[in-house]
Write a structure and sequence with these properties.
By secondary structure, the protein is of the alpha/beta class. The strands form 2 sheets. Strands 3-2-1-4-5-6-14-15 form an 8-stranded mixed β-sheet, sandwiched between helices. A 7-stranded mixed β-sheet has the order 9-8-7-10-11-13-12, sandwiched between helices.
């Protein structure tokens, strides 16, 4: 199979989904790999390293799309890529279609097969291709929040861990999944006072035991969130429902009760955001102030640490890419239920129920889409 990867077009996205190490395995398995020139430079993988493991370097994104049967990327197709996708081509990347109606329309119209990293789900419910980026984003959330609490800038001018005689900042984390747990780890490590709000009692119990009194936990409700936010110096939104638009758990009225110059980091912004006042920003202009509160809402947070993020992502994507290349996409999907759950759109049909529901579009079971006459 011919496998391609182009340079990411999303603003300030420096990751790559195929490192030279992964390309080496694909070439060794007998496949042809096309890499757009400079596709790996943002993560410090020069073209020479790809050439050394057998990749073919091509000059343009158009060359990659025109010749590749399987496209392996990091982020959802950008407008410049819409017209390049074609019938039967496999697009394997983070999609977050529940919050991207324009991208969804382009994918449906192209009749490509779109497989989303974030909805590949193992039998135990784990999300193997989303988890590592959630881990990165959770850790970065506290780092970025602490950065924007400081001056110069609109932040409150607070040191996260405080000092002798001055209490630490109060960090509130809503959500106790991968993002939340990693945010908690960093916030505790930096000496903050941490409150975790979640509706997962088992996860809260585990966190209580793990941190042995160093954090506070609370079961989530509107009343609980509203009562805690006025004392928060930093709020981290870490709510995820795989494949669906993130539920809004913090209203504008709640944000108004926060202290001026406090910071919100909405990690769920790539799924639409879990805080009413957030909208996507980017690494060039990562923050804005609304209701007196600093908002950080960069959808591709791990793009700021591209070497780390690319290494782990490429390693975890490789087995799935190999399966598609070795078996063909239909056989790979039928053999691996986890990969099948990653299929969001199959040749014009939306095959993930959460995506269809979020966008109010018809849902077609995957097997029906595969066997539909053409």
């Amino acid at each position: 199979m011919i496998i391609g990867s182009s340079r990411e077009r999303k603003l300030e996205e420096f990751r790559t989904a195929l490192t030279p190490a992964s390309v080496s395995d694909l070439v060794h398995a007998g496949h042809t790999v096309l890499i757009e020139t400079n596709a790996g430079v943002g993560a410090h993988y020069p073209d020479a390293e790809y050439l050394a493991v057998g990749a073919q370097i091509v000059p343009t994104m158009e060359d990659v799309y025109a010749h590749s049967e399987l496209i392996v990327e990091v982020k959802e197709p950008q407008p410049s890529e819409f017209a390049l996708m074609r019938d039967g081509q496999v697009i394997f990347t983070y999609l977050h279609l529940a919050a991207e109606p324009e991208v969804t329309r382009a994918i449906v119209d192209s009749k490509c097969i779109a497989i989303a990293y974030e909805t590949v789900r193992l039998p135990n419910g784990a999300l193997p291709l989303l988890a590592p980026m959630s881990e990165v984003a959770g850790r970065l959330a506290v780092e970025e929040g602490a950065r924007f609490l400081k001056r110069p800038g609109p932040g409150r001018g607070i040191l996260l861990g405080g000092i002798s005689g001055v209490p630490p900042a109060h960090v509130v984390v809503i959500g106790s999944g991968n993002v939340g747990r990693n945010a908690i780890r960093v916030a505790v490590g930096m000496g903050a006072r941490v409150t975790v709000i979640s509706n997962a009692i088992d996860q809260l119990r585990d966190l209580d035991q793990q941190y042995a009194g160093r954090i506070e936990t609370a079961l989530s409700s509107r009343g609980v969130i509203a009562s805690i936010l006025p004392s928060a110096d930093m709020l981290i939104g870490a709510v995820l429902v795989a494949g669906e638009r993130a539920p809004v758990v913090v209203s504008r009225e709640m944000v108004r009760t926060m202290q001026p110059g406090s910071v919100i980091v909405d990690v769920a912004v790539d799924q639409g955001g879990c805080i009413e006042t957030t909208h996507p920003t980017n690494h060039d202009e990562p923050i804005y102030v609304e209701e007196g509160v600093v908002h950080y809402a960069v959808p591709n947070m791990p793009g700021s640490v591209p070497r780390t993020a690319s290494t782990v992502l490429s390693t975890l994507v490789l087995p799935y890419a190999l399966a598609i290349a070795n078996l063909g996409v239909d056989a790979a999907i039928r053999r691996d239920p986890a990969l099948a759950q990653g299929v969001n759109v199959y040749r014009g049909a939306i095959t993930h129920p959460a995506v269809a529901a979020a966008l109010s579009l018809p849902y077609v079971p995957l097997e029906d889409a595969i066997t539909a006459p053409r």
